[in-house]
Each structure stands twice: as structure tokens, then as C-alpha cells.
Amino acid sequence: MHRVSRPAGRAPNRAASRSGRRAARPAKPGGGLLARLRRDRVMLLLVLPGFLFFVVFHYVPLLGNVIVFQDYQPYLGFKESPWVGFGNFSVFAEPDFYRALLNTLKFAVLQLVLFFPAPIGLALLLNSIVSPKIRRFVQSVVYLPHFIGWVILISISQQLIGGTGLLPQLLGDLGLPRVDLMTSSGFFPWLVTLQLIWKDAGWGTIIYLAALLNIETEHYEAAAIDGADRWRRLWHVTLPGIVPVTLLLLILNLGSILSVGFEQILLQRDAVGADAAEVLDTYVYFHGVLDGQWGPAAAVGLVKGVIGLVLILGANKLAHRFGHEGIYSR
Fold first, then answer.
1. Cα of 302 vs its chain's centroid, Å
2. Which of 54, 119, 124, 208 is the one with CA 20 to 30 A from 246?
3. What is the distance between the alpha carbons of residues 187 and 180, in angstroms, rounded to a whole number?
């Protein structure tokens, strides 16, 4: 008996049809949720501590804003404290609150105008140093004040410009009148800003130095070939290269613009008086924590958070209008 042979082209056609059907099925771009979690498990584990930190210390405490609408008493708790509606917002009609608000705005404007550009200028100066050894040494020197506590730094300020400090003694030896800048209420906003620059300007240069390193050297070479001098390269290459980072930090700083340094101001408040040194943070501390007015103090903190959120969203929208990404894309 002879075996009937199948057509030679049938098996390949059938295999081709099966492969065509498999190819026609749309493949899942990233797999399911479990597959993506399994794929990115290492990165998720690295992010987990930071995520838990923000959840525990930032998002969970937001639930405590319920006391804004209560006559909160710690021994009664959230459930037993009586509800007062918007009664706690009457704190915004008190003269002491407006004095603290005006002082806060004064400190905030000075810090925004003087302190925020300081790390940028310092980073540009450090970046212009040719010798790597000298650059590392200067970086170490300007970073160190960030790790000094406010108590020590204010003590150093007292020894330098206080009533019995170095500066008054030099003025007295020269026959000039002695001045105590540590107790001058008019100079206090400038003093706080200068202390902040001294302490944190060097630390703030870290991000800007990283942004400067990301600028391609080809841009500088092309500008030099076109005849641009040092200042033109700075204006047309360096500054535009750090604009995205500058806008990002500016928008983030606007969110905390009404927090102008609680510990720093509290340590010097008695020396200049409450009229010059009372800000919103110290107002919340003295009226909320010490006087037990938890509801009004929480109302002030809630309004601060809402204003910060509005400033961040508004500034980010304005950055989009000018063609920049801001803190998040559109």
C-alpha cells in the first residue's frame, strides 16, 4: 500500500496562520499591576522609607485639622470636644494676629529677595574656580554652617555684634558710638536674613552646582567661537541652563514662604520684643501651645497651608504660561 502524501505547502501555511493569529493579538504594554510591582520591587523598596515618612509625619497629621472647628480640649479628645463651627476663625480679627502677619510678610519678602539668590551667586562663584582642590576646600567651608545649631550661631552673632561684642568694641576704640545690633528692632529683619544666608547659603549651592555640571561644554565652546566673552557666556549659556532648577526651587519655597524660621526667631524674640519679632509661627506657639487656644492656633496653621498651596499652584501655572515645566507638567 502506498501512503498518500499531504501537500507540501499545507503544514507551513497552517503554522503561518497560527503565528499570524498570535501576532495579531495586542500585547500588554506593561503587564498587569502585579507584574509591574514584581518588576519594580527593588525601586519600590528604596522609595518606601521616604513614602512612609511623608505619610506618617505629613499626611496623617492633616486629620488633626478637625480641631479647627472644635473647642478642642486635650483631655476630651477629638470625639468629646464640642463643635464651634467657624468660631475659631475670629482669631483673624485680633490685632496681635495682624501684627504677626505683617512681621511674617516683612521677613518673607527679605528672605525671598536676599536669601534665595544667595546660593545661585555662590554656586556661580564656586563654579568659576579653576583649581579643583581650592573649589573643594571652599565648598567644605561654606557648607559647615548648615550643621551648626541656631543656639550656637546666635551665640556667635552675640559675640560679634552684640552689646559687648567685637564690633561695638572696635567702634568704641575708634571713638564712634557703640551700637547693639542684636537688640535693634529696626535691624532685626535684616539680622535674621543675614543669619539665614550665613547658615544655609552654602548648603543651597549643592543643587545649583549639580545643575551647572549638567550644562554641555559644547555650548560654551560654540559661544566662545561666536565671539562671546565671559559675561555673555554667563548670560546666554549658564543662567538659561539653571533656569528650570531655579524655577522649581522658587515654586517650592513659595509653599513655605510664611514659615520664616521658628527656632531662629524664638531664640531672639525677647531681645527685640514681640512687636518686632512676633511672626505667625511664634504666634501659634504662644497662643496655641502655651495659652491652650488649640482651635484658633490650628485655624492659623490651616490658613497658612492653604495660602502655600495656592501660591504653589499659581506659580506653577505661571511657569507653564512662560513655557517652563515647573514642579509638574501640564
1. 19
2. 54
3. 10
